[in-house]
Amino acid sequence: MWPNLESLANALISSLVLTHVLAQSPEQLTAQNPCISKPNCHECIQTPSCAWCFDPKRESERPRCFQPAYDINPNQEQCPEEFTYNPDNIMSLVSNMALTEAHGKIGGAGGTIESGYAYSNSSSSSSSSSSSSSSISGGESNWSESGSSQIVQIAPQRISLSLRARQSYSIFMNYTQAEDYPVDLYYLMDLSKSMADDKEKLSLLGDQLAWTMRNITSKFALGFGSFVDKVRMPYVSTVPENLIQPCPGCAAPYGYRHMMRLSKDTCRFSMMVKQAEVSGNLDAPEGGFDAIMQAITCRDQIGWRQKARRLLVVSTDAGFHYAGDGKLGGIVKPNDGECHLDTNGYYTHSSLQDYPSVSQINAKVKKNSINIIFAVTADKTSVYEQLKSHIEGASFATLSSDSSNIVELIKNQYQQISSSVEMRHNASSALSIKFFTRCLNKDGALMNTNKCGNIRVGDIVNFMIQMEVVKCPKDPKDWRETIEFYPVGINETLIVDLEMLCSCPCEQPDSPNYEINSPICHNHGTYKCGICDCNFGSFGRYCECTTEKISQNTTRGCIQPGSPSGLECSGRGSCICGRCECEARGYSERIYGPYCECDDFSCERHNGQLCSGHGVCDCGHCICQAGWSGNNCGCSEAKEECVNPENNEVCSGHGICECGVCKCQVTSEGRYSGRYCEKCPTCSDRCEEFKDCVQCQMYETGPFSKAECLEKCKLFTPIPVDKVVVDEKKNEISCAFYDEDNCRYAFVYYFEAGHFVVRAQEHRDCPPKVFLLGIILGVVAAVVLMGLAIVLLWKLYTTLHDRREFAKFEKERMMAKWDTGENPIYKQATSTFKNPTYAGKS
Ligand SMILES: *[C@@H]1O[C@H](CO)[C@@H](O)[C@H](O)[C@H]1NC(C)=O
Ligand SMILES: *[C@@H]1O[C@H](CO)[C@@H](O)[C@H](O)[C@H]1NC(C)=O
Ligand SMILES: *[C@@H]1O[C@H](CO)[C@@H](O)[C@H](O)[C@H]1NC(C)=O
Ligand SMILES: *[C@@H]1O[C@H](CO)[C@@H](O)[C@H](O)[C@H]1NC(C)=O
Ligand SMILES: *[C@@H]1O[C@H](CO)[C@@H](O)[C@H](O)[C@H]1NC(C)=O
Ligand SMILES: *[C@@H]1O[C@H](CO)[C@@H](O)[C@H](O)[C@H]1NC(C)=O
Ligand SMILES: *[C@@H]1O[C@H](CO)[C@@H](O)[C@H](O)[C@H]1NC(C)=O
């Protein structure tokens, strides 16, 4: 028993530092520990802040999923490093070329010096179009892109990331708008009859359009295509002659015709526009969607450059047909979203498949980073305004009836498009992604937005992308994901190769600790990550139970023999196959023992600390560190506190020191007392001994004369104080007496460094002197005065009474109306009668 305790105590001392950490975060300790309830490794690491211990030697009742920050119960071993699985988020930059700076300079690890020269030379002398491969040589020639492909508008470009579930991680991304970024503009024109005047105007404005755009970028390319509608009833009249010439001076109707590949040759643009012939159709909406789909998907024919701002201007004065409308003409095959152009640039599948839907167009636009600009006449704006909101990066503007404002319109739209950036991503729903940016306001607050406006060439916008795996997908194949972050309308991306850390390596069959039907699991389960994963029909920690066994009476082994309550597993666990599985507790607390009868948290506490912080709790009892004792380890075994300074003896030799307090002996005469047991049972205080000296030294009174005082009182000199207050710490003794003048005086004394220190009251408390004669005279005077007052009151009363009686008498006398000589009861004998009817005059 004892060696065991000693080793415990050693373990405890070595982990004292940890206890200190524990004590610092009590509020965190009380919070619910989310880890302990996780039964296996992958659920554990899908919980933030949890780690898994797959140490085969870990005590079986201890949860394997733990919080590394708090798993520091001092009397338990830590999970060894090599058996802990606690992956961190890992980010590494795969490609991080620096952003292209304004003024055509190229920085960056990726760009070679040669290409940098090529680019800067070409941008400064684009008109010559001779040396640089990036310059446009006009006509239908190929685009060489070695120069412009070095433009970098997004940094970094590729990141690989390993992310734990439910832990958000932020990556940072910069966007800039490079100077002289190539612009591709494909003009898609509705050439139904009503657009004839627009066509004329556009052919005149072609050069102006090119100049204006070339002012913005030297790498401007222009292309042209036109559309009417499907050549089928009811869209187009199919009367044979109408199929040749639907209206006077019109060309045969067609669905879509690509007429000019993207090129720098603007003369050719004007020419092609002039050459294009208008055609005629029947219904109001046109087949614009067919044309848009082809213009986007036929990348090679149209000549879209890889790195360029791609504008698709759709100018029309009518509405549009969309998916489903094809049925009117008996076309039921849905649009396949592929390119179908013949060598002459005609759309071959016009009458074979339906119009595309809005979402098909949107998907293609997103994939190809194309900005559609709808330039429509005023009467159609409401339709296209709605359409715009369903297509990423689309915008619309009002075209004058003859298209005369087209140049201004395109310039404005381009500027609007290029002066803003909107970040998008294609992550799956397993991820939550938020964009934060300050836009151009470097000192402003981070806003939760993916858009910034008013960006000029050279401005750098920093985006913070906050990613979090909200839920691990069911299929392990989906744990790897490639996510693209891209600005709308620009073919540049930040690619994130994401690996979600949703499972543990030790759960893989190739792990060294992985064993199918392992003997540890009673051959009924797979041993992995330190636990048994039981086969169907078996269960228990080590798969020791089967469904047959559970029907037998197994509770007996779970009840502690002789326990008063008779509860299974002491009520703190569950009985599984005759063995107790104790409840898990938070953090470092633990319930254990074969019947869950023990725990390490219900020991005596002192000042709120378990075992006073000087021991560990084992099964309800504190095991104290060396130097400490007591039930709660609150007693220091150090003896200094008990040593009497008068004689340097522990408790003056009359007691034992316990917990820094002297416990004094009891002898036949009684008990020693005092802090150091220095007072013998029969000794009284030394107050009596000191009082005469205090009296003569302080107040020059008392039995000693001056000479005697000097001679006898050498032990101390009292220190005068205003009021004596006993200082318990110094073990002061307080004394108080009344002297012959009936004055109270008090003093205290204690022993220090070989002599007594006495502090005495400076002035005695004497009763105030009483003036006796005054009191007597006062009393006599008061008695006399009182007597006089009573007499006066009596006199006052009688006088008032007399006055009132006299007044009454006077009143009665006044009321007597008779003569003083008349008898009031005498009645005259004569009577007088009057006749009321007699009217005689008197
Ligand atoms: C253009 O290229 C030439 C070499 O072909 C080089 O000497 C010159 O410095 C370059 N110009 C710029 C502006 O980089
Ligand atoms: C155009 O591209 C084709 C193949 O992509 C290539 O064979 C040809 O040489 C290119 N033409 C020019 C002028 O670069
Ligand atoms: C973004 O640009 C700032 C300077 O404007 C730079 O400090 C930062 O490192 C850049 N971040 C990335 C991811 O390139
Ligand atoms: C091009 O810009 C210059 C000034 O930067 C201006 O004078 C000129 O008119 C612009 N040309 C066009 C066609 O807008
Ligand atoms: C975008 O650019 C990459 C090269 O950076 C290219 O492979 C890809 O085809 C381009 N995408 C589009 C739609 O042009
Ligand atoms: C996002 O786009 C990239 C490139 O198109 C693709 O490889 C990736 O699979 C997409 N990611 C998702 C989650 O769809
Ligand atoms: C199970 O064992 C207990 C204790 O021995 C006994 O009291 C109880 O009757 C038994 N129950 C059954 C179903 O055998």
UniProtKB/TrEMBL annotation:
<feature type="signal peptide">
    <location>
        <begin position="1"/>
        <end position="23"/>
    </location>
</feature>
<dbReference type="GO" id="GO:0032991">
    <property type="term" value="C:protein-containing complex"/>
</dbReference>
<dbReference type="InterPro" id="IPR014836">
    <property type="entry name" value="Integrin_bsu_cyt_dom"/>
</dbReference>
<keyword id="KW-0812">Transmembrane</keyword>
<keyword id="KW-0597">Phosphoprotein</keyword>
<feature type="disulfide bond">
    <location>
        <begin position="41"/>
        <end position="50"/>
    </location>
</feature>
<dbReference type="InterPro" id="IPR057243">
    <property type="entry name" value="Integrin_I-EGF_CS"/>
</dbReference>
<keyword id="KW-0460">Magnesium</keyword>
<feature type="disulfide bond">
    <location>
        <begin position="619"/>
        <end position="651"/>
    </location>
</feature>
<feature type="transmembrane region" description="Helical">
    <location>
        <begin position="770"/>
        <end position="794"/>
    </location>
</feature>
<keyword id="KW-0245">EGF-like domain</keyword>
<dbReference type="Pfam" id="PF23105">
    <property type="entry name" value="EGF_integrin"/>
</dbReference>
<feature type="disulfide bond">
    <location>
        <begin position="659"/>
        <end position="709"/>
    </location>
</feature>
<keyword id="KW-0472">Membrane</keyword>
<keyword id="KW-0732">Signal</keyword>
<keyword id="KW-0130">Cell adhesion</keyword>
<feature type="disulfide bond">
    <location>
        <begin position="687"/>
        <end position="696"/>
    </location>
</feature>
<feature type="disulfide bond">
    <location>
        <begin position="635"/>
        <end position="642"/>
    </location>
</feature>
<dbReference type="InterPro" id="IPR015812">
    <property type="entry name" value="Integrin_bsu"/>
</dbReference>
<dbReference type="InterPro" id="IPR040622">
    <property type="entry name" value="EGF_integrin_1"/>
</dbReference>
<dbReference type="InterPro" id="IPR036349">
    <property type="entry name" value="Integrin_bsu_tail_dom_sf"/>
</dbReference>
<feature type="disulfide bond">
    <location>
        <begin position="582"/>
        <end position="596"/>
    </location>
</feature>
<dbReference type="InterPro" id="IPR033760">
    <property type="entry name" value="Integrin_beta_N"/>
</dbReference>
<keyword id="KW-0479">Metal-binding</keyword>
<feature type="disulfide bond">
    <location>
        <begin position="617"/>
        <end position="622"/>
    </location>
</feature>
<keyword id="KW-1133">Transmembrane helix</keyword>
<dbReference type="InterPro" id="IPR032695">
    <property type="entry name" value="Integrin_dom_sf"/>
</dbReference>
<feature type="domain" description="Integrin beta subunit tail">
    <location>
        <begin position="687"/>
        <end position="771"/>
    </location>
</feature>
<keyword id="KW-0401">Integrin</keyword>
<dbReference type="InterPro" id="IPR017900">
    <property type="entry name" value="4Fe4S_Fe_S_CS"/>
</dbReference>
<feature type="disulfide bond">
    <location>
        <begin position="247"/>
        <end position="250"/>
    </location>
</feature>
<feature type="disulfide bond">
    <location>
        <begin position="53"/>
        <end position="65"/>
    </location>
</feature>
<dbReference type="InterPro" id="IPR012896">
    <property type="entry name" value="Integrin_bsu_tail"/>
</dbReference>
<dbReference type="Pfam" id="PF08725">
    <property type="entry name" value="Integrin_b_cyt"/>
</dbReference>
<feature type="disulfide bond">
    <location>
        <begin position="534"/>
        <end position="543"/>
    </location>
</feature>
<dbReference type="InterPro" id="IPR036465">
    <property type="entry name" value="vWFA_dom_sf"/>
</dbReference>
<feature type="disulfide bond">
    <location>
        <begin position="624"/>
        <end position="633"/>
    </location>
</feature>
<keyword id="KW-1003">Cell membrane</keyword>
<dbReference type="GO" id="GO:0005886">
    <property type="term" value="C:plasma membrane"/>
</dbReference>
<feature type="disulfide bond">
    <location>
        <begin position="657"/>
        <end position="662"/>
    </location>
</feature>
<dbReference type="GO" id="GO:0007157">
    <property type="term" value="P:heterophilic cell-cell adhesion via plasma membrane cell adhesion molecules"/>
</dbReference>
<feature type="disulfide bond">
    <location>
        <begin position="713"/>
        <end position="743"/>
    </location>
</feature>
